[in-house]
Amino acid sequence: MTQPIVTAQNFAQQPENSLDLRGTPCPLNFVRTKLQLERMAAGSLLEVWLDAGEPIEQVPDSLTMAGYQVEQVRPASDYFVVQVRKP
């Protein structure tokens, strides 16, 4: 999995929406993320909380392949935070 570089610019931005998908299995977490992004305005930032393992290994790459810009992936206490922007 390719990790985006965390910069001060994208680290400081507040997401317009957030989605807690901890405990949601693949591929439902990708589908729910994509549905949420489709409801958002162009240029909006979505923060998604994902479990370790398959979710964090699959969802960011799937979002990138679907044309979304993954701006940040960072670990939290027992999950990962992914920030993705709608083009």
What does this structure look like?
The protein has a single domain, classed as TusA-like domain (Translation Initiation Factor IF3), CATH 3.30.110. It has helices at residues 8-12, 28-39, 54-65, and strands at residues 17-20, 45-50, 69-75, 80-85. The model is unreliable at 4-11 (pLDDT under 50). The protein is 33% helix and 26% strand. Strands 1-2-4-3 form a 4-stranded mixed beta sheet, covered by helices on one side. It has 3 helices and 4 strands, in the order H-E-H-E-H-E-E. By secondary structure, it is α+β, with helices and mostly antiparallel strands.
What is the CATH level 1 assignment? Alpha Beta
How confident overall, as mean pLDDT?
90
List low-confidence stretches: 4-11
Shape: globular
- What is the count of helical runs? 3
H/E series, N to C?
HEHEHEE
At CATH's second level, what is the architecture?
2-Layer Sandwich
Question: Could you tell me the radius of gyration in angstroms?
Answer: 12 Å
* Biggest beta-sheet profile: 4 strands, mixed
Structural class: alpha+beta
- CATH fold title: Translation Initiation Factor IF3
In the CATH hierarchy, what is the superfamily? TusA-like domain
* Proportion of beta-strand residues: 25-35%
